[in-house]
Amino acid sequence: MRLFIGLAVILACLTQAACSAPKLKLPRPHKVTVQQGNVITQRMIDELKPGLTRSQVAYIMGEPIYRNTFNDTRWDYLYLVEIPGTYKEQKRLTVYFDNDVMTHFDGDYSPTQITPPDVPPDVIDEG
């Protein structure tokens, strides 16, 4: 019985000491930043114009990350960045073709407004 009481007192003392002990910084597992897909820049988007061929679009944008085998008239570009616990970004762009010529694109990007050099700025209607 004395042994049991002695162990109980020692356990109580260790428990009390553990609560007041300084916090130890234990090593944590390394979390890797995940970057997948095609990196798409605004310069690339500004170069996309209707009338480009598939090879010209592939030259500007790179090969698409996803090609639909059942619908050959569109290419899908996806981009994902994930920093574990802090940041996640996902962007997409879809390019549409008709007879191997680009007709338009849509997604999370849009071209910047650039006025053609041969048209005076006062002629362009902003509204």
Rg from Cα: 30 Å
What is the third-level CATH name, the topology of the domain at 34-107?
Beta-lactamase Inhibitory Protein, Chain:B, domain 1
Contiguous low-pLDDT stretches (5 residues minimum) are none
Shape summary: rod-shaped
Structural class: alpha+beta
Number of helices: 3
Which range does the strand content fall in?
25-35%
Report on the structure:
- The protein has 127 residues and is an alpha+beta fold.
- The chain has a domain at 34-107: Beta-lactamase Inhibitory Protein, Chain:B, domain 1 (2-Layer Sandwich), CATH 3.30.1450.
- It is built from 3 helices and 5 strands, in the order αβααββββ.
- The chain has helices at residues 2-20, 42-47, 54-61, and strands at residues 34-37, 66-67, 74-83, 87-98, 101-107.
- Strands 1, 2, 3, 4 and 5 form a 5-stranded antiparallel β-sheet that branches.
- A hairpin with a 6-residue loop joins strand 2 and strand 3 (74-83).
- The protein is rod-shaped, with a radius of gyration of 30 Å.
- The N and C termini lie far apart (93 Å).
- The mean pLDDT is 81.
Short description:
The chain is α+β, with helices and mostly antiparallel strands. Helix content is 26%, strand content 28%. It contains 3 helices and 5 strands; from the N terminus they run H-E-H-H-E-E-E-E.
